[in-house]
Amino acid sequence: MRIETSAGPAEVELDRPGRNKPGFLLVLTHGSGGGVDAKDLLAVRDSAMRLGGAVALVTQPYRVAGRRAPGKADVQDAAWLEIIAALRKKVRGVPLVQGGRSNGARVACRTARDAKARGVLALSFPLHPPGKPEKSRREELLAPGDIEVVVVNGARDPFGIPDAADATEVRVIAGQAHSYRAGFDEIVATVEPWLERWSAS
Predict the structure, then answer these.
(1) Does this model's pTM top 0.70?
(2) Which ranges carry the KANL3/Tex30 alpha/beta hydrolase-like domain (predicted)?
(3) What b/e string do you get for 151-165 counting C-beta neighbours within 10 Å, with b at 16 or more?
């Protein structure tokens, strides 16, 4: 389905758990030049569906328009909050967990409080530009404050790896870079117990 935002239309794939009311709503999005078909996003989606959650995979307006760069953060964040508001009208009365990979993880962290999310999943959080550790984005991870943030990064990620103190949980996947070629079982094993809690709440 399409959701109109101030930055243009977003495309959303919304999956629900059959006829039952979902236990939670998980909203995931892509990195700067990628799409929602990334294997880590799909692994998390499948896990959440098994747990009885509703899952929305969001292609943000800049990607729908064919651009690879997300543009200004405030424009991107405003559009994200409009997308979340539209999805909350379709899936009501359940906890919201939001997340994404790379740039999408940054958006999910920055908007978590305004979206009233209960948790954030940050896949391949880009802690800093490659080779520039002095330009840390650590504050974006800490911004949600009392909102639980789970980070999963590859051990060889040139964008850096957050410290254990930067989030509720930081999982490092051995041998993986910024885009995962393996380790999807480890990602699911990290995320699934956490999502189970939202389903039970």
Answers:
(1) yes
(2) 25-168
(3) bbbbeebebbbbeee
